[in-house]
């Protein structure tokens, strides 16, 4: 039987591997933040779904329009790391599917998380219905997708369940949750990397 992703990442945090992820993901997340912010003129609230050690929450908090930034993750050690680095930050230890904010937010961001779900449509619909305000924005980044053939062995390497879909099926999945203006693009593509797939949509 394969392992729970949250157990694996809790272990990673306890041996400092959260920092490697932060380093590897920052370039793509910086681009995703630019996509989010470029048409943002009003103050906004923000949740990072599957925040790891919370680094993207702390980055977004630097934006002067960001009035609230929350990180949620189901790996205990990740959340403990986040709270240790930023004791005044808002980091919540919870399974994403079982959690919702008290008040819906303007932006939900998620980097390298959604494919760990058996049924990605269920978590995306949950985020759309329970986390986002009307017209709220959703953005997610994925390095694990069908067109990136270098990643196909990750489930075996990590010994965990991962959902591998081609780009068009990710786009359809967001549309089938009722999200609007669904857009996909790749960022960070190099000679040796297919790029991070970014999906962006509005409620
Ligand atoms: C590859 S890491 C990415 C972490 C962070 N977004 C980053 O870029 O550094 C995936 C994260 O998703 C979290 N995760 C996976 N499944 C989850 C679930 N069902 N509920 C909450 N968190 C989950 C893991 O604990 C892990 O921290």
Summarize the helices and strands and which ones pair or pack:
Layout: H1 5-14, H2 18-37, E1 44-49, H3 55-61, E2 66-73, H4 76-85, E3 90-93, E4 105-111, H5 120-131, E5 132-142, H6 154-158, H7 167-176, E6 180-187, E7 196-202
Parallel strand pairs: 1-2, 1-4, 2-3, 4-5
Antiparallel strand pairs: 5-7, 6-7
Helix pairs in contact: 1-4
Bound molecules: S-adenosylmethionine.
Name the features.
binds S-adenosylmethionine; 7-stranded mixed beta sheet; 203 residues; alpha/beta; Rossmann fold
CATH superfamily: Vaccinia Virus protein VP39
Spatial order of strands in the largest sheet = 3-2-1-4-5-7-6
What ligands does this structure carry? S-adenosylmethionine
Q: Could you give the count of β-strands?
A: 7
**CATH topology group:** Rossmann fold
Apparent shape: globular
Largest sheet properties: 7 strands, mixed
Radius of gyration: 16 Å
């Amino acid at each position: 039987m394969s392992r729970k992703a949250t157990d694996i990442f809790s272990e990673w945090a306890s041996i400092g591997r959260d920092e490697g992820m932060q380093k590897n993901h920052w370039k793509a997340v910086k681009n995703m933040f630019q996509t989010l912010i470029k048409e943002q003129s009003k103050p906004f609230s923000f949740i990072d779904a599957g925040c790891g050690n919370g680094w993207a929450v702390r980055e977004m908090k630097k934006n002067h329009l960001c009035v609230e930034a929350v990180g949620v993750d189901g790996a205990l050690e990740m959340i403990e790391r986040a709270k240790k680095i930023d004791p005044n930050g808002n980091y919540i230890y919870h399974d994403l599917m079982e959690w919702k904010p008290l008040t819906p937010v303007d932006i939900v961001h998620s980097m390298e998380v959604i494919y760990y779900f058996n049924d990605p449509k269920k978590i995306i619909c949950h985020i759309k219905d329970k986390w986002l305000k009307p017209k709220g924005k959703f953005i997610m980044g994925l390095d694990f997708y069908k067109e990136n053939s270098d990643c196909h062995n990750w489930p075996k390497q990590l010994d965990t369940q991962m959902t591998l879909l081609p780009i068009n099926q990710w786009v359809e999945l967001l549309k089938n949750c009722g999200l609007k203006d669904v857009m996909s693009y790749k960022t960070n593509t190099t000679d040796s990397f297919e790029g991070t797939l970014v999906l962006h949509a509005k409620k």
